[in-house]
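dumping this here before i forget
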Amino acid sequence: PDSLVLNSQMYSNYKSRCTVKSLIGITPHGTVSFVSLLFTGNASDCAMVRNSCLFSFRETSDSLMADKGFLIARDLQSIGCTLNIPHFMNQTGQFTPDQIKDNRMIASVQIHMERAIHRIKTFALSP
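structure:
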C-alpha cells in the first residue's frame, strides 16, 4: 500500500511482507462453515477471534481446534466451549504418552483444515 500507516498495519513479521488474513471454520465432515472478514497482517490471532462473529455461531459444548498460537481457551471456557490445540513441549523436552496420542489425533484432523484452506485460496471463496 502507498499509505505508510496501512503498510505498517498490513505487514506480517511472520511472512515478511504485507498480508491479510482470515479465520476459517470447518465442520467435522470438512465443509467450510465460516469465513471471517479479512484482517490486516499484523492482527493477532486472539484479536481476530474476538473481533469476528465466530462466537455467535457456536453452541455450548462445541470444541474448536486451532494452532498453538491461538491462546483463546479462557474466552471459549467463558461461553461453554473447549479448545483443542497441540500440546506445548514441557521442561523435560519430551511429551508424555498421552500428549503424543493427543497431538497425533489433532494432526490427523488438521489435514482436513489445511485442505479447506487450500480450497478457499484456490477457488477464491469469500464471505
